[in-house]
Amino acid sequence: MVKSTSSTGGSSSKLASPTPEDEEKLREAAKAEITYPDKMDHKEIVLRSSSESATGQERKDEWAFNFDRVFEPNSTQSEVFEEISQLAQSCTDGYNVCVFAYGQTGSGKSFTMEGGSTESNAGMIPRAVEQVFRVSDELKSKGWIYKMEGQFLEIYNETINDLLGKGEFDKKKHEIKHDKSGRTTVTDVNIIPLTSANQVRSLLALAQSRRTVASTLMNERSSRSHSVFTLRILGENAMTGESCEGSLNLVDLAGSERLEKSGAGNDKDRLKETQSINKSLSALGDVIAALGEKGEGKGDKHIPYRNSKLTYLLQNSLSGNSKTLMVLNLSPLAYHLNESLCSLRFATKVNNTTIGTAKKQIKNPS
Fold first, then answer.
1. What does the pLDDT look like over 297-325, one tens digit per residue?
2. Residue 188 resides in a domain
3. Of 83, 262, 297, 348, which is most buried with the most CB atoms under 10 A?
4. Would you say 110 is a known binding-site residue?
5. So where does ATP get bound (predicted)?
6. 235 annotated as belonging to a binding site for a ligand
7. Residue 203 falls within a domain, yes or no?
8. What distances in angstroms separate CA 118 from CA 67, 86, 114, 122, 308, one per listed residue?
């Protein structure tokens, strides 16, 4: 509901609220011109913009992008998950899997990953966990028995917080450790044994209540941190003597907007947050680019995992022998067109990068 107040001669009068039809027109006018020309495979998205120059001439711009799959605004959570479901369940086969949600603040990343309170709008995390439990149950007939555990971490200003901890965020210094077998651990964090998919929903609610939120111009209740939900799965087959270990990392990245859009310039805390976010997102881009060069056979390329806590935490799930997918969320508003273009260009770089061939983490009986 939009209300406008004008003041004349010391008295104020309220203008009538717009009719529903007018409100719909205002909403439509505020939207960016985004079209989806590929009606068969849903792989293309086109953004258009028109502006007037100082001389009064109209200038029109058009940008077209192609991805593995483009979801239109009326797409459901179920349709999005269908696209990643096979990838998510491959952790039961001993793969390390990483799914990112990337985009500016307020574009819907957290809704995509965590979802809402109903079954129909459940996000990628609860759906992925349900899928893994369902598949592991089906594999019992083939001799496989699985143990699962979960952790949920936040990276805020290059500091790791445990979202499943007790009370206020503790002052412990959480350290990231990688062992030779490819397992990543973080010191002094709560790792919860998972026995059912429903259990994960209550963990999500706990984590959300603890997650660092702050007010920005982009979104009044905006998450200013990356969150990383990790499902680790250990499988043993009594019939064959095989064992496997996989992990599924579901990552809700902090908003990718530039400083002037975030409203951070006049606030030291917000400035530090935004600079830290942008540094870690840049480090993520650098790691993906370096992996791409290595994948093209350009020598023993150094991969700068240590340039941020995010990339170092996810080192074993970003390396060439893992499976990685990025979900890009876009704002539909014309006001956010430049941010959307920045996000689309970043996603295009990621999409054009081949990081290697995924390998199972599986042991055969000796």
1. 666 778 899 999 999 998 888 876 688 88
2. yes
3. 262
4. yes
5. 103-110
6. no
7. yes
8. 29, 23, 11, 6, 35
